[in-house]
Write a structure and sequence with these properties.
mainly beta; Immunoglobulin-like; six-stranded antiparallel sheet; five-stranded antiparallel sheet; 1 helix; 11 strands; about 15% helix
């Protein structure tokens, strides 16, 4: 009996650790030069079926909101404002006494930066947040990123 209980405990522990380590949000990153010379940094998420990724503007005291932190760099300036490219879903969550904002399936975000020069550069940083299923089984979303930016070359007219 003790052996069976031990084996079942090991299987349960393995299953729980696997579920907690599974990446439930995958990311792609890119940049786009705007007509005014500013750069859009684009963050695209694909969210596993049954999971939600919480909005950067999820209310305080509720599930962990997404944060995007850019490493400091003297080749650009930014206000660090995260712009959601889709409207998040909303649901009142009794446990938090708050209306949570989240995305299912896909989500896209952007941050605008302004280059301080005209040389190519790389923007690096980290995403942090939380993805949960309907039973509040949650995984941490934590991803380092690096985005290559091609600077807009200024035309020299003679």
């Amino acid at each position: 009996m003790k052996k069976i209980l031990f084996v079942l405990t090991l299987i349960f522990a393995f299953t729980i650790s696997y579920a907690q380590n599974k990446e439930n949000v995958s990311w792609t990153f890119s940049s786009k030069t705007l007509s005014n010379g500013n750069i859009e940094l684009l963050f695209n998420a694909v969210i596993s079926d049954g999971f939600r990724l919480y909005s950067p503007y999820n209310p305080q005291g509720a599930s962990m909101p997404l944060t995007i932190t850019l490493d400091e760099n003297n080749v650009f300036t930014t206000d660090n404002k995260i712009i959601e490219l889709q409207k998040p879903e909303e649901h009142y969550e009794e446990i938090f006494d708050a209306t949570e904002k989240f995305f299912k399936g896909k989500a896209s975000f952007k941050i605008i930066i302004k280059p301080t020069g005209n040389k190519d550069f790389t923007v690096s940083g980290m995403l942090k947040g939380q993805a949960c299923d309907e039973q509040f089984m949650c995984t941490m979303v934590r991803k380092n990123f690096s985005i290559n930016v091609t600077a807009q070359k200024k035309n020299n007219k003679l």
